[in-house]
Write a structure and sequence with these properties.
415 residues, Sulfite Reductase Hemoprotein, domain 1, Sulfite Reductase Hemoprotein, domain 2, single chain, six-stranded mixed β-sheet, alpha+beta, five-stranded antiparallel β-sheet, Rossmann fold, 21 strands, binds iron/sulfur cluster, 3 domains
């Protein structure tokens, strides 16, 4: 039996949800990385009543519900629209994603830049806006980012990255370039970003196969746009700032993590009931939440990660069996059961099959379920930087019975 993998070709939204084995996946893209407590209550209620009782946090700072039935899909979307979580206009929801750092102060220049870019993306880069210019819609994986000055969000790999620099100028980097264009005003930076995105939308369709990410097009072509010709090039720090770990950060607020990036809806409901309805809870790309204030809240340790040394931060997992039809192993259960065996400063990603959905950029080791020649599932462990090399087979289901064996194998990987 072959271990065939089905690749889904787009990122889901609320108006273009993705069908999985366990129902529809409905994604909400937070505006400026922020949702109000009232909106979190709506999400928790919907998850408890009409989906799996979890709210998933993605590595792009989105939140999503899974397991929505066909019969409930329209009703769930209507409630998300009523709560201001999803645009009423499908075309706006299908505009390219504008991700935003959660590390800003209300009404500061970073938030203003993100709001300006988000408006421009809807007005000038939505499928209908591009169609009016005779262009096809941008691929759904194309994304724009407004980062913080320390550029902590670089690991998101956005196609266009903008930020307010320390000297109050505006930087614009194309893909993972180590150089950036500098602009004096936010409108100039946003105009340039929009024109590069439109250039990408037009140019990509002249190639076969059409690239889906800007990086691939830049390897073959260079944009010659008026918006870039007068902007000076500056060095862009491509090293990326470190992620903020769970705990209190005096400059930003309190970070709380969700094990495996999944928030139990009941736990979110409990948290939301302790805070005012108009308070913010922001979403990070590190599968955690930011309370941008020092709130005293009671958090159940079974559902929340509040300390930077929590071993659950050392593991991640895809959906896996039984919810994913392609999963050969219960990836999430395995990951949590093995977390205490993962050495500090290493990260184990558990994958239910070789597609490696939601693979963490900081994974150092991979535990993957595959089918052997006879069609029986087996687990294999290997280094993340040697994904195609021969890995160590582990008897199944012994992996969950012998965590000490896994611990030794993980240790041996780095000898
Ligand atoms: S990697 Fe995980 S979630 Fe993705 S298809 Fe395989 S089992 Fe499913």
């Amino acid at each position: 039996m072959t271990d065939s993998i089905k690749i889904q070709g787009w990122c889901p939204t609320a108006w273009q949800p993705m069908r999985a084995q366990d129902g529809w996946m409905v994604r909400v893209r937070p505006h400026c990385a922020s949702l109000s407590v009232a909106q979190w209550r709506v999400l928790a209620d919907l998850a408890l009543k009409h989906a799996h009782p979890q709210i998933e946090l993605t590595r792009l700072g989105n939140v999503q519900l899974r397991g929505v039935s066909q019969a409930q899909l329209d009703g769930v979307r209507a409630q998300l629209i009523a709560a201001g979580l999803v645009p009423e206009d499908a075309d706006a929801d299908l505009a390219p994603a504008v991700h935003c750092t959660p590390l800003y102060r209300r009404n500061d220049a970073t938030q203003a830049l993100a709001q300006l870019l988000a408006r421009a993306a809807v007005q000038r880069l939505s499928p209908q806006a591009l169609a009016r210019r005779g262009m096809a819609a941008l691929p759904s994986k194309f994304g724009l980012l407004v980062d913080d000055p320390a550029r902590r969000m670089q690991a998101m790999g956005a196609d266009l990255q903008l930020w307010v620099s320390a000297d109050q100028g505006y930087g614009l980097a194309l893909a993972d370039s180590t150089q950036a264009y500098r602009f004096a005003h936010p409108e100039e930076a946003v105009d340039a970003a929009v024109e590069i995105a439109a250039w990408f939308a037009a140019e990509r369709t002249t190639l076969v196969p059409a690239p889906t990410r800007l990086r691939a097009l830049l390897a073959q072509r260079t944009p010659q746009l008026p918006a870039l010709q007068t902007a000076p090039l500056i060095a862009a720090d491509a090293s990326g700032g470190a992620a903020l770990a769970p705990g209190l950060h005096s400059d930003h607020g309190r970070i709380i993590g969700a094990p495996l990036g999944r928030i139990a809806a009941a736990a979110m409901h409990e948290l939301a009931m302790q805070l005012p309805a108009d308070a913010e809870i922001r979403v990070t790309p590190w599968r955690s939440l930011l309370l941008p204030y020092d709130a005293v809240v009671a958090l159940d340790a079974a559902h929340w990660i509040t300390a930077p040394d929590d071993v659950r931060l050392r593991v991640s997992a895809c959906t896996g069996a039984p919810r994913c039809a392609q999963g050969h192993a219960p990836a999430q259960t395995l990951a949590l059961s093995l977390a205490a065996q993962v050495p500090p400063h290493t990260h184990l990603h558990v994958s239910g099959c070789a597609k490696f959905c939601a693979l963490s950029a900081d994974a150092t080791a991979l535990l993957v379920a595959r089918l052997d020649a006879g069609g029986a599932p087996r687990l294999a462990l290997g280094r993340a930087d040697q994904r195609n090399a021969a890995d160590t087979p582990i008897s199944w289901p012994a992996a969950s019975d012998a965590p000490a064996n896994i611990k030794k194998l993980l240790h041996d990987l780095y000898l």
